[in-house]
Each structure stands twice: as C-alpha cells, then as structure tokens.
Amino acid sequence: MNDLEYLSKLAIQSHGVLANSTLNKSNITERRIRTLLKNGILKKEHTGVYTLLGSNPTWHQKANIAIYSCGPKARLSHLSVLQLFDLVPINDRNKTIHV
C-alpha cells in the first residue's frame, strides 16, 4: 500500500484531515511528514494539522480542522456536533463552527 492509500484510510472519518498525533500513532515520523508536505501529499492547515491531497474542502473538513487546531481537549458545541454527524442541516444561518 502506498502513502496516499494509507493516509486516505487514516483520514476517511475526519473528512481528509490528519493531525500529528494521528500520524505519529501510525508510525509516520516528523521527517516523513515533512517529505509528504514537500511532495504536496499533505497541506498544512495549522500547526500539526494537515489536509490530504484531493480532499474536498467542506464545512465538515473545516470543523475537523478547528477541533484539531484547538488541541486534544477541544470539543464542538452541541449544534456543531449535530451538524458534523449530519443530524442537523447546515445552512446560512447556522454554518458557524463553535468549538
């Protein structure tokens, strides 16, 4: 399995978003992360937060980036988490992400 296939399996539930903690738990070193960034397979969104090449920038992806960017104790608000799991529709009135 090549890097892109492996990373896409890791990122599938987080809408293409990967954090250093997830990558490190999967034995992907900081050096390898730098190489993936250099080759354009990963795009840096925030310190320690990346999106995968070809992932679709959606509200769901932005919500995951916000969570990972705020750290391991961050949580979404009640409305945002319902939207993340598609239990409440996202529209112009409620598209703000609350962490």
Poorly predicted runs are none
Oligomer: single chain
**How much helical structure, as a percent, in the residues?**
40-55%
Gross morphology: elongated
Task: Classify the beta-strand content into a percent band.
Answer: 5-15%
* Major β-sheet profile: 3 strands, antiparallel
pLDDT averaged over residues: 90
Radius of gyration, CA atoms, in whole angstroms: 14 Å
**Strand order across the biggest sheet?**
1-3-2
| Count of helical regions | 5
**H/E element string?**
HEHHEEHH
Whole-Å distance between the termini? Answer: 35 Å
SS class: alpha+beta
Briefly say what this structure is.
The chain is α+β, with helices and mostly antiparallel strands. Helices cover 43% and strands 12% of the residues. A three-stranded antiparallel beta sheet has the order 1-3-2.
Which helices and strands appear, and what pairs or packs with what?
Blueprint: H1 3-11, E1 17-19, H2 20-25, H3 30-38, E2 42-46, E3 49-52, H4 59-70, H5 78-84
Antiparallel strand pairs: 1-3, 2-3
